[in-house]
TrEMBL record:
<keyword id="KW-0238">DNA-binding</keyword>
<keyword id="KW-0805">Transcription regulation</keyword>
<feature type="domain" description="HTH tetR-type">
    <location>
        <begin position="4"/>
        <end position="64"/>
    </location>
</feature>
<dbReference type="Pfam" id="PF00440">
    <property type="entry name" value="TetR_N"/>
</dbReference>
<keyword id="KW-0804">Transcription</keyword>
<feature type="DNA-binding region" description="H-T-H motif">
    <location>
        <begin position="27"/>
        <end position="46"/>
    </location>
</feature>
<dbReference type="InterPro" id="IPR011075">
    <property type="entry name" value="TetR_C"/>
</dbReference>
<dbReference type="Pfam" id="PF16925">
    <property type="entry name" value="TetR_C_13"/>
</dbReference>
<dbReference type="InterPro" id="IPR001647">
    <property type="entry name" value="HTH_TetR"/>
</dbReference>
<protein>
    <submittedName>
        <fullName>TetR/AcrR family transcriptional repressor of nem operon</fullName>
    </submittedName>
</protein>
<dbReference type="InterPro" id="IPR036271">
    <property type="entry name" value="Tet_transcr_reg_TetR-rel_C_sf"/>
</dbReference>
<dbReference type="InterPro" id="IPR009057">
    <property type="entry name" value="Homeodomain-like_sf"/>
</dbReference>
Length: 193
């Protein structure tokens, strides 16, 4: 496997540092050190810590199973939705529930002080909800989800469910409970037993 570029190493370090210390607690010097890079080289790749946070959010999303929503080998839309949330539940448990979701953490940490980061995270949430809405409508067309389910509202609620479960998991520290909450919550929101 080729060695990651310095920019990629800095982004990977930022994901870890933001997870461990939050946005405010993660400094440029610490992120650069964690990446094995001189602090000055940070500014060769990023204009600011906020610019890095946007890249870190995108890197985090790339590893969250979003491709499962678009997998043509899975013909049932409901199976794609279930598949992504099962993946997220497993990933939450495997990464350690104390970290929660980097997106939710960044959104909460930057809402007042770094509106560009918060707006970028909100754009990620909106894009995810739009993809879920399309899949809910497909699942309704396939007869797997009741027509009475409001696809638009439910898609937003599924995103909120994930963020809420990830946040609470940081408090109770039980990955198995978080997975169960996701499984039950997704089914209930989709109007399924």
């Amino acid at each position: 496997m080729p060695k990651p570029s310095l920019r990629d190493a800095i982004v990977d370090a930022a994901v870890s540092e933001f997870h461990q210390h939050g946005y405010a607690g993660a400094g440029v010097a610490g992120i650069a050190a964690a990446a094995g890079a001189p602090k000055g080289s940070f500014y060769n790749h990023f204009r600011s810590k906020a610019d890095l946070a946007v890249a870190a959010a995108d890197r985090f999303v790339a590893g969250n199973g979003g491709e499962l929503l678009d997998d043509p080998s899975v013909p049932r839309a409901l199976d794609r939705i279930d598949g992504q949330f099962a993946f997220l539940g497993s990933r939450l448990e495997e990464m350690g529930v104390v970290r929660g979701c980097l997106l939710g953490n960044l959104a909460a940490d930057t809402a007042g002080d770094e509106p560009t980061v918060a707006a970028h995270v909100e754009g990620i949430f909106a894009g995810w909800a739009a993809r879920l809405e399309a899949l809910i409508r497909s699942a309704q067309d396939q007869g797997d989800v009741p027509q009475s389910v409001d696809a638009d509202v439910t898609a937003d609620l599924l995103v909120a469910l994930w963020e809420g479960v990830a946040l609470r998991a940081k408090v109770h520290g039980d990955g198995a409970a978080a997975r169960r909450q996701l499984e039950v919550g997704v089914r209930r929101l989709l109007g399924l037993p």
